[in-house]
Structures are given as structure tokens and as C-alpha cells.
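Here is one record:
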Amino acid sequence: MADWKPPPAPKKDKPKVLLLPPKNKDCNRVIQYLFGRGIDYQLIQECISDGTLYESADYHNAVFIGKDESGTPKYAALRGTLGSTFKQDASGSDKQYSFRLLAKKPADTVHLFEAAIDLLSYATYLKCEGKDYKSENLLSLSGVYQPKKEMKDSKIPIALTTFLSANPQIKTIVLHLDNDKVGRLCTATLKELLQKDYKIVDDPPPVGKDFNDFLLSYLKIARPKLKRERSDVR
């Protein structure tokens, strides 16, 4: 037994280091891009002011920031603003802390979106309808959620599980996922996984593929033409 050695201690995952692109001196192109997508100007300015949105210096991408409970940036989604479909997460992004706008007072409902622009489109729509988006919890899922072949084997997206564990008062989850095949499958899967513990409301965009499509239609704005670009995301 002299050769016996204790098993090695399990390796701990190193905390992710978020590598944010350098900030541009202003956010003019990001503002112009989002305003062209129908997003409310004041809402854009509020996101810039609270550090959840900026313009990168290198490629003038929109950078959507997700912060942890202490307000430290942990996630960043990069989106092209110069007429391309470029999408990518910043290196070291932790999907637990996706882009979100949280209610100013405790609320028992959370609204779920695939991407930050869909979330901002919904907030703009609420504002246009004279409703206070600051009374709602709005959470993005950091892109398309991929369920497993068998629904029961699928996992709930980590951005949502992190939010729900930090907010035990939540009773209702409203799904605003896309009107395409993937979005409908994600909706059915999340409903199956969550309906035992929460009231699930399926509320896809009434018009178009996603909530930005719907907002542009609602505001009677022509959708900007984008050139396709290879995406390295996920």
C-alpha cells in the first residue's frame, strides 16, 4: 500500500475573464443604427448612461453588456451596425448574466427574448402604448436556445435559471421568442420544462419573425437591408 496516493483534487473552473472591445469616443453610429431599427431614443440613451450599451472603437459594433448582481460586466454581445448581420459574443462572456432591463420595483413576472434588440423593441412598444417598461423584468437569452431532440432532456437556459434563482418571487414567465421554426420549438420546450413551477404565457410577435420586425411594422418603418456576414457566434 506504500504506493497509494490520494486522488488529485478536482480542478476548479477558472473564472471567466471578459475581454471587452475598446470604447469609441462616442456612440453616434450605435444610436443611429438602433434608432433606425425603431428603438426609442431616450431608451438608447438610458442604456448608454447606465453602462449596458456602448460603441466599440474598432468596428463600431453595438456592445450590449450583461452585469452580475454587483453591477460588474460579465457578458457582452457584439452586433454589427454598418449594414451587416455580424453577431458575436465577446471572449470570456458568461451567459449567466445576459443583457437585461430589470423592474425598478419587485415584480412577479419576467419577459423572455432571444436577443437584446428584441428586448429593446418590446420596451419601446410598451412605451409607445403608454405603459411603463421600467415596471417589467425583461431578460434576453444571449441568442438562440438549442433544445435537445427529446424535450425532457433539454436544459433551461443558464441566463434564465440564474435569474430565477436570484428572484424567487417570480411566478409568471412570458415567452416572446421568434415566430420561426427554432423559436416555436424553444417555446414548446421551455413550456414543457417550466410549467410545473411557473405560469407560462406564450406571446410571440404578432407580426414578422421577431419583436423588432413587429416594432418596425407597428411604427411603419421599412426594415433596413443588411448584407449577410459569416457569424462566429456560439
Q: What stands out?
A: Helices lie at 28-36, 41-49, 116-128, 158-166, 181-194, 211-218.
